Amino acid sequence: MKLKYTLLIMVLAIWSVLNAQPRLSDPGATKETVALFSNLFKIRQKGYLLGHQDALAYGVNWKYQKGKSDIKDVVGDYPSLYGWELGHLEIGADLNLDSVPFDKMKSFIKKGYSRGGVITLSWHGNNPLTGKSAWDAAPGSVASILPGGTKHEVFLQQLDRVAVFLSDLKGKKGESIPILFRPFHELTGHWFWWGAKTCTAEEYIRLFRFTVNYLRQDKQLHNLIIVYNTGTEFGTKTEFLERYPGDEFVDVLSFDTYQHSSQAVDTAFVTKLKHSLSVIDDVARERNKLAAVGEIGFNKIPYSDWFTQVLQPALRDHKMAYVLLWRNAGYKHQDGTTEFYAPYKGHASANNFLRYYNAPETIFQKEARTLKLYK
Ligand code: BMA
User: Is 99 helix (H, G, I), strand (E, B) or coil?
Assistant: First the structure.
């Protein structure tokens, strides 16, 4: 009797350990992709990767200078997560929508990976129905590109171009570079053609599943870690999951958020941020997925202690795998606005960012390299 009982306990213990093992939604994922995913789980005991969009391409007042990055100029180290943007790849352009040449982007991706960093890709793709931008939220856009829709073939051609780019990202040994792929992001917002006002939940889910299946099965891409990404519109787990494509199609649960108000510490923003973090933290734990912040920032960092007084404390009690600061575009001639979310040398928040860098939980490039995320 006693032996039976001990055996049962052992079986249960093994079962729960096995079940707690993070499993990628792609059963055929490459070994580097599997390793990255499980290492991102592990590092959460210690902290999270700090990312920056377009970090190596340009910053405030500079473009394409070898080895340069605004973050590196401030802390002497690169971010550990590099965000890049695919918009306009789908129409066969040589430059993305923010004028980054795709051939340069490829070499930056390879560079970041060779340093032991991690790559995430977003896709502000043009609207296949109207041919206009990602922000053209024309009704019926999603329906038109699903199988049987009038623009399905156009969408397939777009996906084919994305697939060619993704399959071309190789490390030194010819291995595919694992990518945190974040398509159809900020899905709960209304500004993109795949947004919540432009399609039904069912249509969004079909689009997401179709895209993942097409890249995985038809294109045989097995280096993708799939990121589901909402805006801040959700308040509850049910709302967060309203358009969730399902555990077999998603690996990372995330949302995007920005502080817009002029107050230094905006308590409403902080309260909402903490709440959103706890919602995705809970859902991720229940589903054995990773949680992360897809994009975050306070444009122009008007409050110089923002990193240690707002971002750091909000994240402290949550298990995020990574956080991505959006791009340091600087002055934008197209619309006359200025945009940057990470400090640059000489900016008032530089010292504060250095303190944030030195915090035990933030992981930048040098530390990421020692963590051997692909082994
Ligand atoms: C937005 C802004 C735009 C940019 C777009 C896609 O948030 O930064 O200037 O074109 O992201 O990268």
Answer: coil
